[in-house]
Amino acid sequence: MAATATATTLSEPSAFKLVSHRPVSSSLSAFSSLKLHSAANSPNYSLKSQLTTQQHRHIGTPIRSTTTTPAVASTVTTFHGLCYVVGDNIDTDQIIPAEYLTLVPSKPDEYEKLGSYAFIGLPSSYETRFIEPGETKSKYSIVIGGDNFGCGSSREHAPVALGASGVAAVVAESYARIFFRNSVATGEVYPLESEGRLCEECRTGDVVTIELGESDCKLINHTTGKEYKLKPIGDAGPVIEAGGIFAYARKTGMIPSP
Amino acid sequence: MASSTIIPSSSAFIKKDVGLSAFSSQHSFYIRSSKKRACKKIASVMAPQQSERKPSTTGSVKTGSTMTEKILARASEKTQLVPGENVWVNVDVLMTHDVCGPGVIGNFKKEFGENAKVWDREKVVIIPDHYIFTTDERANRNVDILRDFCTEQNIKYFYDIKDLGNFKANPDYKGVCHIALAQEGHCRPGEVLLGTDSHTCTAGAFGQFATGIGNTDAGFVLGAGKLLLKVPPTLRFVMDGEMPDYLLAKDLILQIIGEISVAGATYKAMEFVGNTVESLTMEERMTLCNMVVEAGGKNGVVPADNTTYKYLEDKTTLPYEPVYSDGQARFLSEYRFDISKLEPLVAKPHSPDNRALARECKDVKIDRVYIGSCTGGKTEDFMAAAKVFLASGKKVKVPTFLVPATQKVWMDVYSLPVPGSGGKTCSQIFEEAGCDTPASPSCGACLGGPRDTYARMNEPLVCVSTTNRNFPGRMGHKEGQIYLASPYTAAASALTGFVTDPREFLQ
């Protein structure tokens, strides 16, 4: 499931849709190091086909996922897209209300449905909804939150709903323990920590890029032209990239393949 | 925020930050696991292991451990652990329910194979409790998935329900998992209990390590019987003083969460001690531990004592071995409370740490009262509510919904005499007070649930509730307002139609 899920997330056009961003140059430089997280595994993947604005016609043919600077062996995992900004203490009921917990995440069709309800529990004060009426995916691939993101229930449906809706990464000041663990265990989303209150620095709809290097992790807001340092994800990174703990354990030989 | 308005209760509270010197050893240990904690002073108390010789064989224990560290050390077959260490912990009991169980089973089958067997059919406890009395087809299907799996795996403890029309026709059916775990003897001192529900921490009341995990982790435990866990540092809460008869454990935990915030114990263990805690019944200790997750806590724990052993007497025949924090155990910080000075509290919308005195909210008009859940739906919770109704002799002014946590609680509500009532049962007192008839035991509307869930908030109402969370949408409606309170305060509020301090009726 995890593998399918990742592929779905990444082949979802909206995840990389670029709308009105400037300055163009900075977003282009961001693309130069674009890894497009695991997208190489998806054979039909083509970034070009997913770019909707004319500004990017000149980018050219599909950008391969693992862009490695030849001199340096390290790879940079990059996410690029629109961000959706929420506040402090976003609990699991706001991420995926309890009435949708009848959906079983390990069933592929119900996994997709869970995604379509992501953040439906946010109060109406959030005028811009995370998923447009009639849509099943979100156009926002990066969520920016404040303190204690994902508090409340232990429901794994929460990171699953976000991942299934097309979210690649959450950037918050801090996380509730179980949400963080579930995000890593499922490999659904990268739970990244910011150093400041990015939820007050960014606005829903801003175009952002996240770069996770081995020594340097940052978030670039192309709409405002500002750059922010992120805390390193550490050993959890490879687990999420593999698609969760089971996939990682198999990949590294910790457990045998079934 | 709320604390500034709480002069009396704040004065009952002292936080003692244990000085750096007391933690020097711990700081040196932190280096291993956390880069965040830059250590300037390296003063190692425990020398690095030079040989195969284990500290236990030398007969000299050099540092003290907290009970959480000891439980995890034993379960991971280590001599001693320090906070921050990651260890593989053997699990004594894995619990799952109808909301997460099907996903856990799906993960287990996918990862271990269609024909795989669970690691121990007697250590898996499966309790349908969340979405039971509903016509939601998917919810009903989920209970069927549990049943098929339990049959296939010959799971020893499956508390099944087939006849949804009459829960009493299902002798195996219990109800809310955390209360059922205790009542059926699955909670034992010194053990490790994991469950796919954040309120699994309730079982810490028995002096055990208990915490909530996700479906993927639970799928792993189902196949392997163990899980990689990080040893949490412990916050210690010392509560002393005679508890006034208008307070309940719910007030104590709301006080604590208000003090340390909804993230104040993130990744940490919360240990509750002091003569007030010693005087609490098992059910009250469960209330205390139940809400540690509302402070972000990994687990809560109360040292086992005679109260614990007495409760367990007729519930389990399995041997258990309690552990206790050493005198020299290192606590991250210690908080002290004089409980005799506390007043009844509520948590205002929309956060469990939005603490206020009940009497400060006396102008808040309410639409309904809800008494139920793993937090506030136990026998003693209903006894407490009945006591307030009895003392007032009046009728409720707003709809008052009662959802016993388990079948056993339901039976108690209908059979146990309320002290001082001349032999009346809770159910009789509730009926005289004009409450709704006690509903079938389940998680009910605590977390909203399917649309047809009994007492679910389908409109933006104001509710005083004995449950555990009041984030937006928790009980069903995003614009609903939930005031978390003790059963005393909930019953008093039902009688006036406003948030009400129970002293108005109890004194």
UniProtKB/TrEMBL annotation, chain A:
<dbReference type="GO" id="GO:0019761">
    <property type="term" value="P:glucosinolate biosynthetic process"/>
</dbReference>
<dbReference type="InterPro" id="IPR033940">
    <property type="entry name" value="IPMI_Swivel"/>
</dbReference>
<comment type="subunit">
    <text>Heterodimer of the large LEUC/IIL1 subunit and the small LEUD (SSU1, SSU2 or SSU3) subunits.</text>
</comment>
<dbReference type="InterPro" id="IPR050075">
    <property type="entry name" value="LeuD"/>
</dbReference>
<comment type="similarity">
    <text>Belongs to the LeuD family. LeuD type 2 subfamily.</text>
</comment>
<protein>
    <recommendedName>
        <fullName>3-isopropylmalate dehydratase</fullName>
        <ecNumber>4.2.1.33</ecNumber>
    </recommendedName>
</protein>
<comment type="pathway">
    <text>Amino-acid biosynthesis; L-leucine biosynthesis; L-leucine from 3-methyl-2-oxobutanoate: step 2/4.</text>
</comment>
<feature type="domain" description="Aconitase A/isopropylmalate dehydratase small subunit swivel">
    <location>
        <begin position="141"/>
        <end position="187"/>
    </location>
</feature>
<dbReference type="InterPro" id="IPR000573">
    <property type="entry name" value="AconitaseA/IPMdHydase_ssu_swvl"/>
</dbReference>
<dbReference type="InterPro" id="IPR011827">
    <property type="entry name" value="LeuD_type2/HacB/DmdB"/>
</dbReference>
<dbReference type="InterPro" id="IPR015928">
    <property type="entry name" value="Aconitase/3IPM_dehydase_swvl"/>
</dbReference>
<dbReference type="Pfam" id="PF00694">
    <property type="entry name" value="Aconitase_C"/>
</dbReference>
<dbReference type="GO" id="GO:0009570">
    <property type="term" value="C:chloroplast stroma"/>
</dbReference>
<dbReference type="GO" id="GO:0003861">
    <property type="term" value="F:3-isopropylmalate dehydratase activity"/>
</dbReference>
<keyword id="KW-0456">Lyase</keyword>
From TrEMBL, chain B:
<feature type="region of interest" description="Disordered">
    <location>
        <begin position="45"/>
        <end position="65"/>
    </location>
</feature>
<dbReference type="InterPro" id="IPR033941">
    <property type="entry name" value="IPMI_cat"/>
</dbReference>
<keyword id="KW-0456">Lyase</keyword>
<feature type="compositionally biased region" description="Polar residues">
    <location>
        <begin position="56"/>
        <end position="65"/>
    </location>
</feature>
<dbReference type="GO" id="GO:0016829">
    <property type="term" value="F:lyase activity"/>
</dbReference>
<dbReference type="InterPro" id="IPR001030">
    <property type="entry name" value="Acoase/IPM_deHydtase_lsu_aba"/>
</dbReference>
<dbReference type="InterPro" id="IPR006251">
    <property type="entry name" value="Homoacnase/IPMdehydase_lsu"/>
</dbReference>
<keyword id="KW-0408">Iron</keyword>
<dbReference type="InterPro" id="IPR050067">
    <property type="entry name" value="IPM_dehydratase_rel_enz"/>
</dbReference>
<dbReference type="GO" id="GO:0051539">
    <property type="term" value="F:4 iron, 4 sulfur cluster binding"/>
</dbReference>
<protein>
    <submittedName>
        <fullName>3-isopropylmalate dehydratase large subunit</fullName>
    </submittedName>
</protein>
<dbReference type="InterPro" id="IPR015931">
    <property type="entry name" value="Acnase/IPM_dHydase_lsu_aba_1/3"/>
</dbReference>
<keyword id="KW-0479">Metal-binding</keyword>
<dbReference type="GO" id="GO:0043436">
    <property type="term" value="P:oxoacid metabolic process"/>
</dbReference>
<keyword id="KW-0004">4Fe-4S</keyword>
<keyword id="KW-0411">Iron-sulfur</keyword>
<feature type="domain" description="Aconitase/3-isopropylmalate dehydratase large subunit alpha/beta/alpha">
    <location>
        <begin position="83"/>
        <end position="497"/>
    </location>
</feature>
<dbReference type="GO" id="GO:0046872">
    <property type="term" value="F:metal ion binding"/>
</dbReference>
<dbReference type="InterPro" id="IPR036008">
    <property type="entry name" value="Aconitase_4Fe-4S_dom"/>
</dbReference>
<dbReference type="Pfam" id="PF00330">
    <property type="entry name" value="Aconitase"/>
</dbReference>
